[in-house]
Queue: 2 jobs
Job 1
Amino acid sequence: MLPSHYLSSLTLAERLYRQQPELARQIYSAEVLQFLQDGVIIFPQVIDPDLLDRVDADLADLPALARTSLLHGMISIDGNADHYEARVLRNLSKLGVTDLRQAGPGLKLNDLHRYFDSARDLAFSTPIIRFLDELFGSAPALIQSLTFWKSSEQSLHQDFSYVHHHSRLGHLAAAWIPLEDISDKAGPLVYYKGSHLLAEHQFYNWDQGGILASRNIDPQTAAGYGQYLDALINHQGWTPSIYLPRRGDLLIWHGALIHGGTAMADPARTRRSYVCHYTAAAHHKAMARHRVGEGYDFSEPPSLPETMRPRSLPTRLVSAAGRRLKRLLQRGLTHA
Ligand SMILES: O=C(O)CCC(=O)C(=O)O
């Protein structure tokens, strides 16, 4: 994928903003225009506190690896090399991490929206979907969700190089949702306003002019990316913004905005947060999709194991009676 392909895949809103800003100003809302200018927008106190409570309640059980090994076995993880090699949450114990809350920075739990209705509802919250619908000019689709306990400490990057589950690469945005008030000691998100408005000559050359990163790329090229971004930031005079949100706030950033996770000043501090990447439904590469409210989800159907599903009272009573009967029968057989 060449820079010119990326630029021609941008949203209509952005192409208009870049080429005929006066016309764009007549069409789009103040929020979308601010996003197109800065590459980021913050919505203070728009996430429903009851929904955040539901997410908290569902996440509360996750750290107990041993007790819920069935569920943990299925939750894939990402992040720094160690975590990524573990692949699924249960394997973290092989790295000596028995409680994910104690894991160092960089641990990302992938796609919890597939397991928990609360996480799905959060990913499809009205303030996010309404904004993205206007930005994309059509219904948004969720690409992935990431749940963090601590900072990612991820070096500066632009998402479009890494997230490409969609055919029009320029249709990419992400939401950063704090699950708690974020301390400056917890390794908060850093971003550079305006850095999304790249010109054709400002893209990093990953391979023969291509703009997509690959896990198999040689270490020198991978290291060169960070140096390249640092030099670009210096040259453009972009200054860092540190995001210190309160629970209930929401930040949405552009798929080309330079951003990263800062280092944790206090290694004990949590930075519980939920990050979702979106594209327009029409450009998602997956075949199967289903509607969630005003948006679309392409995940596999929810795969919470039967044993973890909340069951109705009559179902629970019938299975308890069944288990009791089985025990009685077994006892009868052993005494016979
Ligand atoms: O929250 C962070 O520390 C960074 C997250 C991020 O860079 C991403 O998900 O693309």
Note: Residues 86 and 95 are 8 Å apart (CA to CA).
Job 2
Amino acid sequence: MPVKLTVNAKPTTVDVPAEMPLLWVLRDVLDLKGTKFGCGMAQCGACTVHLDGVPVRSCILPVSKAAGKRVTTIEGLSEDGSHPLQKVWCELDVPQCGYCQAGQLMSASALLASNPHPSDAQIDTAMAGNICRCATYLRIREGIKKAAAMKAEQVAPARPARKRTGK
Ligand code: FES
Ligand code: FES
């Protein structure tokens, strides 16, 4: 069955069974391998992508549910790795083995898009479904806070220099 959707801002049509999980379509049909398969049961978050900006577990989402919607994967988070989270992730060396990190970044970016200044508790709640076997949780939380600060700096207007009066 042909399914039309937009993947990383590109209109796309895939001819697959309607019940095929979106994750399979992304990885095996569209060759977008950044999104990972972990549990296949919506329990680990490794397969997280955005559907119309909302984080979803693509391992259990039939592709038919994505018809007519915008799907964003880790490959589409930014064109050149310039999303504040991607920059901070490198700066702080957040990943260890890296397997869970695409999912972590997609959940974190959805959080910052809806809540630019999350508290520790809000970060922990938003990220609770993303499991990291390497236990990088503290660096993930630090990274989200640092990226939030970086984003705030980017949107804050530069202060005009104060004039010296000589008095
Ligand atoms: S692979 Fe989808 S939540 Fe684990
Ligand atoms: S960095 Fe290894 S599972 Fe998270």
Note: The chain has a mean pLDDT of 94.
